[in-house]
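User: Can you predict the 3D structure of Alternate F1F0 ATPase, F1 subunit gamma? Sequence below.
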Amino acid sequence: MSESIELLRSKIAHAGTLGSVVRTMKTLAAVNIRQYEEAVRALGDYYRTIELGLFGSLHLTENGHSAFRRQHSRKVLVIAIIFGSDQGLVGQFNDLIADTVKQEIATISGEITVIPVGERVQTRLEDAGVHTSTLFALPNSVNAITPLVGDLLTEVERLREKAPAIELRLFYNSPVSGEQYQAVSMHLLPFDEEWEKQVKSHVRKWPTSSPPEILNGVRTVQWALVREYLFVSLFRACAESLAAENASRLSAMQRAEKNIDDMLEELGQRYNERRQAEIDEELFDVVSGFQSLGENK
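Assistant: Sure. Here are the predicted structure tokens for Alternate F1F0 ATPase, F1 subunit gamma:
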């Protein structure tokens, strides 16, 4: 059964409206990507300053103790913070990070606390058999990242006070190129030889000829640097995760826009064909009527 002109007009109108919505969502995703990427870049200089402070205080101790040395304990609490997505149209975003967490957790022996950021990634983790702890809501803007990071650091500090020693890990999706992203696993605490090598490779040399000194409260200053290091690391992980999420959504919107354009083109062709068929029928009726009048004469 052929479609009527009215039905085709309605389909074309609905497709056009949907196209407008998709274009708006595409624009919002592009704007969000830009602001999250700029937030990460803005942290660059501050992060280098923190690394410089860490580098300068690596060799310092207070009564033989340093905030950078790992506490030897048989009981270590592993804290895993996982950033996901609570928005739609992001494909396998949460599944990818949940699978990565499950694989790494399987290699960890001992007590572990999993802190999900986002309800949907928490659901994926629970479905995968990973027990989760306190749930944190995802931020919806750059300005909302700082309060979230503050809450996460407070939770980490609360857990640290109850455990002889902790190990802190981050899991998030990071943009690669275009709409592509990859799951990242980052080891933040405790500081080990690999971390020390990384800091030294980034800084290499103290900028002045005089070595840095801390006259009083070496460990206090070191812990202050550690907290700032954790803040920057968490902020960057969250911002990169949100940028990757919006890149995935932008890709989905681009595909949807192409599909809508193809649909509009097809509907337009069918409309023109149906309209032409109706015109042909009307002309045929006119010609037939004229011929009938001629025969009657």
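The longest helix spans residues 218-296. The mean pLDDT is 84.
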